[in-house]
Write a structure and sequence with these properties.
The structure is a single chain. With 182 residues, the protein is of the alpha/beta class. It folds into two domains: 139 residues, Secreted effector protein pipB2 fold, CATH 3.30.2450; 36 residues, no CATH class. The protein is 19% helix and 32% strand. The termini are far apart. The protein binds zinc ion. The site of zinc ion (ZN) has 8 residues, from loops.
Length: 182
């Protein structure tokens, strides 16, 4: 794979996820910053949800090594201050078990039809603590857009029927628990 379009921020000082806009019309991103530059990766809600879930899976299934190895990542172009912002199609998560460092890679989706060396990629690495923050925050963000069920308080997903534990699977918005036909 050509790496001409690859920007590696290395180990970042800050990484966070954010949402903008009104419920039903929200946008989502992950931003990261290091001494090499900064990146803003826009994504769909489902993609942010998946990132949070993948981070959580690694956090719970792999332990921090007793003596973590130093982490290093090659700087592809040392003279360049990286500044990238794009909407991503493909993302990949890696975990270096020796250093206990997480690396997220994202590819600019507008490059899908471009020659491979013209596609912008960004990659950045972060600690378990930062991974934990992103995982928690992304779950809050994803859940925040959904109204709670008035009966069981589980978040409702628009367009997906809700099997409410309080009413044996009837959708409370279609079958309000009234006082009966009187
Ligand atoms: Zn319910």
């Amino acid at each position: 794979m050509s790496e001409a379009g690859l920007h590696d921020l290395g180990f970042v000082s800050t990484v966070q996820c954010e949402t903008f806009g009104e419920p039903g019309n929200r946008t989502f991103n992950i931003t990261a910053k290091s001494n090499r530059g900064e990146a803003t990766v826009w994504m769909e809600k489902e993609q942010l949800y998946q990132v949070g879930l993948s981070l959580r899976q690694v956090i719970v299934t792999r332990e921090t090594p007793p003596d973590p190895a130093p982490f290093d990542s090659e700087q592809t172009n040392p003279n360049e201050y990286i500044y990238v912002e794009f909407k991503t199609g493909d993302m990949a998560l890696e975990h270096d078990p020796a250093a206990d460092v997480f690396t997220l890679s994202a590819q600019d989706m507008t490059g899908d039809d471009a020659p491979s060396d013209a596609i912008t990629h960004v990659r950045f690495s972060f600690s378990r603590e930062q991974a934990n923050e992103i995982s928690k925050r992304s779950a809050e963000i994803v859940a925040a857009g959904r109204k709670p069920c008035p009966l069981c308080t589980a978040p409702l997903t628009p367009g997906v029927s809700h099997f409410c534990v309080k009413v044996n699977g009837y959708n409370p918005t279609e079958n309000p628990m009234g006082r009966g036909a009187d």
